[in-house]
TrEMBL record:
<keyword id="KW-0949">S-adenosyl-L-methionine</keyword>
<dbReference type="InterPro" id="IPR001525">
    <property type="entry name" value="C5_MeTfrase"/>
</dbReference>
<dbReference type="GO" id="GO:0003886">
    <property type="term" value="F:DNA (cytosine-5-)-methyltransferase activity"/>
</dbReference>
<dbReference type="InterPro" id="IPR029063">
    <property type="entry name" value="SAM-dependent_MTases_sf"/>
</dbReference>
<comment type="similarity">
    <text>Belongs to the class I-like SAM-binding methyltransferase superfamily. C5-methyltransferase family.</text>
</comment>
<feature type="active site">
    <location>
        <position position="81"/>
    </location>
</feature>
<dbReference type="InterPro" id="IPR050750">
    <property type="entry name" value="C5-MTase"/>
</dbReference>
<protein>
    <recommendedName>
        <fullName>DNA (cytosine-5-)-methyltransferase</fullName>
        <ecNumber>2.1.1.37</ecNumber>
    </recommendedName>
</protein>
<keyword id="KW-0489">Methyltransferase</keyword>
<keyword id="KW-0680">Restriction system</keyword>
<keyword id="KW-0808">Transferase</keyword>
<dbReference type="GO" id="GO:0032259">
    <property type="term" value="P:methylation"/>
</dbReference>
<dbReference type="Pfam" id="PF00145">
    <property type="entry name" value="DNA_methylase"/>
</dbReference>
Amino acid sequence: MPVIPLRPRPRVLEFFAGVGLARMGLDSAGFETAWANDISDDKAAMYRAQFEDDVMEVADVNDIKAADLPRADLAWASSPCTDLSLAGNRTGLAGAESSAFYAFTAVLRALPDDERPAALVLENVIGLSTSHGGDDLTAAIREFNELGYSVDVLAIDARRFVPQSRPRMFIIGSRKPVAADESEHPLRPAWTEAFFNDPTLDTHRVPLPAPPNYLADGLGDKLQKVPNDDPRWWDVERVRSFVDSMSPVQRERLDKLRRQNRRYQWRTAYRRTRKGVAVWEMRPDEVSGCLRTARGGSSKQAVVRMGYGKVDVRWMTGAEYAALMGADEYKIDGFRDNQVQFAFGDAVAVPAVGWLAENYLKPLVAGEFSAAAEDAAAHG
């Protein structure tokens, strides 16, 4: 019996890798990370502890030499979003941190044309679509076009996979010609049309399956079972101040859930400043708000447990951050809780990447979306 050789796993260059959540999603679809980089020693330490290999290079992306990179099929970049996020200062791609995007493309530009990856992904916040009236996203697409990539734009909310509201944009580039697909898709919302319809941009749309529906609950299943006598629960006075700061609408919502006697109800809450006054606002659903880092200007997220006539509040833990990012089994032991929270609040949800990799990136690098492949499939 002849031996059928196994197809090699497609290889990835992972820029701005953080603690490797994109890698976890790509791994689940059969990719292999050949090289990774991040500027943070703390994140790199967590990355190495998780994957137990030596692919991580700690360096500023401006110092990366293209000649030192291994050959790969896909380049992934979760570039800094501080200057694009609604929680940041909205200075756009020209901002001190988000301009690292151009350092990333400079590395690709330095590669010989025939050595550039077949596909690339830029993952960032949805704010990129409106930054400078859309000019920043247009500039990013045009930058990829100049490198020889046609571009698709998707918006994927992690809430389709985990109980956390976390919308993210994925710009997918392909060096291979891709068969056109003009059908509507829920991951290409109406605002993407302006970019697809811009005749100065080289764009494409591939056919994709329908994504999972948004989750409406499930937060309680991702939270740690913290004992009632654990000191992380706030004391009576602090809980009273929490409740007293709420608006009448918020307090009515809390009181209704407090009176439930069948099971505990779980919500998350953020501290906001309204008319110069610090208040607490609680989400109406059993889904976490978007996990963030303090650097982005947002307060930490609190967990609220209500039922049986009581209200209990505590800060969310690092383990809960990991679970809500779809990385329940991540090795966080030995790392500071605030280090874990910072790292995971600055990352991409694992199952969102896994879905994208399985349904888009893997067939893309294999050439399954090419016009020739479409013709072959059509003629059986």
